[in-house]
Structure formats: C-alpha cells, structure tokens
Structure prediction request, 532 residues.
Amino acid sequence: MTQPAAPRTAYDAPWWKDAVFHQIYPRSFSDSNGDGVGDLRGVIDRLGYLELLGIDALWLSPVMRSPMADHGYDVSDPRDIDPLFGSVADLDDLIREAHARHIRVTMDLVPNHTSDQHPWFQAALRAGPGSRERERYVFRDGRGPNGDEPPNNWPSVFGGPAWHRVTEADGRPGQWYLHIFAPEQPDLNWLDEEVFQDLATTLRFWLDRGVDGFRIDVAHGMAKPDGLPDMDMITNRIMDNDENDLRFNNPGVHAIHRRIRAVMDEYPGRVTVGEIWCKDNDRFAEYIRPDELHLGFNFRLAEAEWDAAEIREAIDNSLIAVEGVTGIPTWTLSNHDVEREVTRYGGGALGTARARAMILVELALPGTVFLYNGSELGLPNVDLPDEALQDPTWERSGHTERGRDGCRVPLPWQGSAPPYGFSSNESTWLPMPADWQDLTAEAELEDLDSTLTLYRTALELRRMRPEFRGDAIEWYGAPGPGLLAFRRIDGRLTCVLNASGAPVELPDGEVILSSAPLVDGLLPADAACWLA
Ligand code: NOJ
Prediction:
C-alpha cells in the first residue's frame, strides 16, 4: 500500500514545507543490545517500519553524550554520541541507511544549557568567583546578608528555585548558578562569544556528517534579561510560559538565532525547527523571520481541549502566527513532554476515537507535521508506579508532579507480553503495561481498522492526492456547535471533525478517508473524515 516517501527536491519549495517528521525518543524506540534502553542500532533495525509508515524525516531526541539527568537534555559532550545509544559510527550508518530510504534525519540540539558534568562547568566550579571559566555560565552572588538567598526569585521549570548554591574550593558556601531546568543543567551565558563559537563547531560537526537539520531545544530561552530582575510569579508548567515570564522570549534571543542561521546557510537544504513556547503570535513570528529559524514548533493543537471552537482557534492562531513572515505552519499533537493525545482526549475507546479524528485534522492542514513515536499505534499514557518514575520533575516537585515518564514508555513491537519485542531484556527502563498486546506494531500492521493503518493510509493520501495542494484553508460553511470543517482552497480537500456528541450529515463530496465508519451516511460523534 504505502510507497516509500518520494525524494523531494529543493527546487520550488524546501523539502520540509509539507513534510511529516516522526519524533523518535531513542530510549524508548527499540533496543538492539538488550540493556533495556533503546539505541541507534534499534532505530536502524526499524527503518523498514518507518518507511512503511510513510514519514519524510526523523527527529531524534538527544543522543549526545550525557549523564542522563534529564535523559539526554543534559549534554556533557555535544560532539559525541552517548555509549548508551551507540557511537558516532552508528549515527553515520543511520543517516546513510535512512537516506537510502528517502528519510531525512534531524537531531536535537541543546544550546540553552549543558550538563553539570560538561568540562566547562566542572572547570567553572574549580576556578572560583570572577574567573573566566565562570563567565560561560550564569554565576552570581546570592542576596541577603550572607549571600544565602538566591540572586532572584525565578523558579526552575522542574520545581524549586532556578538557582543552586555551590561550595567553593575553601569549603564555604559560595556563588549561585542559574538552572532554568534541573540543577544538573546549568544555563549557559549567551553573551559569551565562546559559547556561540562552540555551538557553531557543533552545528558543523553534525552537518558535515550529513545530518539534515536540528530541532533546537528551548529556542525561546538562551538570552536572559539584563540584571536578571525578579519576575511576577506565574504558574510554572513548561507549557504556561507567558509574556511575564522573564526566563524566556527575551529579545536578545533573535541575534543568537541569526548567527545560528548564518551557519545553517552554509549547508543549503538543512533545516532548523525551534522549540518555542510563546503564546503571542507576533512574538512567535519573530523567531521565523527569513534570517532566523526555518520552522517554529507551534504547540496550540497539543494544548487544545477536545472542543471544536478551541481546535478551530488553535488552527487559526497557528496560521496567523506565520502569515506575516510568510512562514510555514507547523502542527503537533504530542511529544515527549506532554500527555499522549489518547489520554488527553479522555482515554480508552473514546480517547482513541478522538485521537484518530485529530490525526485527520492535523494531516489535512497545510504545513509541516510532527508525529510523536507511538501515536501511530494509538498508545495511551501509562500510569507508572511511584518507584518507576525517573523524570526530574518527580523529585524536584517533592513528589507532587509525576512528570513526563507516562508518555515515554517503550514502544510495543510484537508479541503478547512485555517487553513486546522492544528489547530482549524483560527489564525495560520504564515498565511496559501488560495489556498492550493489541497495540503492537505487528498486531496493528495486520489489522485494517487499526490506528496504524489509519495513519499509513492518511499519510499516503496526503502525499499522493492533488486535493492536498496549496497553502491556504477556508472554514467551510457555518459549522454547528461542536463541528468544524475546513477546505484546502487550492486542492479542495474538505476535512470535517465531529466533536458534537451526535452523528452529523456531511457536505457533498466523495469520502476518501474516515477515522470511524460512517453510519447510514452520517459521520459519527468523535470522528473526522476527508472529502474530495
Ligand atoms: C525541552 C525538552 O523538550 C524537555 O524534554 C527538556 O526537559 C527541556 N527542554 C530541558 O532541556
């Protein structure tokens, strides 16, 4: 059924313009060496599956050398692969073999912070206050008579203060350093020239090996406001970054992106996509001006509740956000930081039906789509026992927030019991549920009604059918409450979503795909369909 993704040329439009990226969370994708943790060879082993799925590009969550305090988002050597995941030679093989299947490979890049085990940070600890070594990070004296209060009131995204006090060489409590995330992730000082030069070296290191681009972690971070003033306290969830949050979206960040772009432009056809949590459309647009990032993650669909009006608003805002800068819209329903959509939409059969409907909405839209591994199988979040939790959020919040492990459970490939072919080791880094036998890739490949079959069909239609042409949509008719319908203006594809709770009539047209069977010609509740 599904053909391999046709190689796209960069002549008229960049290859990423309507590409579908598949996010691989390497720890959880496929384990080739039996240590219970996924790795790069595991990804290579599964390239046939990815080709069959019909995606255009991979985004690998971080695989660089890391002590894994935040599962790779704490990098101690940005120009090496962590042995847990393999070697640089394995990455070379992955790039070569993926390219042979017309699948591009992009990597996560973590420029906002390093690991506390990075040689720079270790040197900064040893060198002491006022040293050159400390300038690469954000060290400050504390407030209060003995300097024993943090330099400002910023919270860490993972809970607790964003500052950690160090013990100086003489054994006394000393300066504080900034860590917007875990204490093991000290923020870099982006006013320091060497910090940029090192990133440029890292970019070229991977680009020279054939990597097709980068997902840039915390792309709205990096720059900090002068004087690091206190901020008004806000809710501190990662998705709640707003305009008053002084930790993010500082104007100085754009000069950094322009410098990154200048390096990227040495390598035509390579892409950057920034993680940008920013609710204001105008400020979002600034990141994707022609000399900054190629793409910016828009998280509005991932944040929208199961509500037609909310989903429509998310779509409108995502389109408006890029319009003024003629940018490319991006769509994502989930990733390794948020609850899986099946669970978010209500869980069980209901959540699955709605997640299936939303994939048709997402894939009907013009722009770049990011799918999170396992969503094609319709995996739910997993309720893990306390003792299994590993996300730093769990400890840092004093066991009040369970964190993100529930969406990071290893993928089920085959068989009827854990570890479902993910590993030869029964003890996987997060335990796998006992009832996933119907959600394995193998089971779903054989089932014409499975979520995997729906994804494969949808991706194939999106790639092959002329109805998906064009960059603009129009809202179709006056949808009733709970309904949403839009049309691709050029290609004339119509997508209808029924969140009304009751079956609805469809507009005229040939139904080319439906997330649930029509009943007497009506689109059932919690379903979506495409009409040509
Ligand atoms: C965003 C990443 O997606 C998340 O997983 C990570 O914990 C933080 N950035 C810190 O790097």
Summary: Residues 1-10 have pLDDT under 50 and may be disordered. The first helix runs from residue 26 to 29.
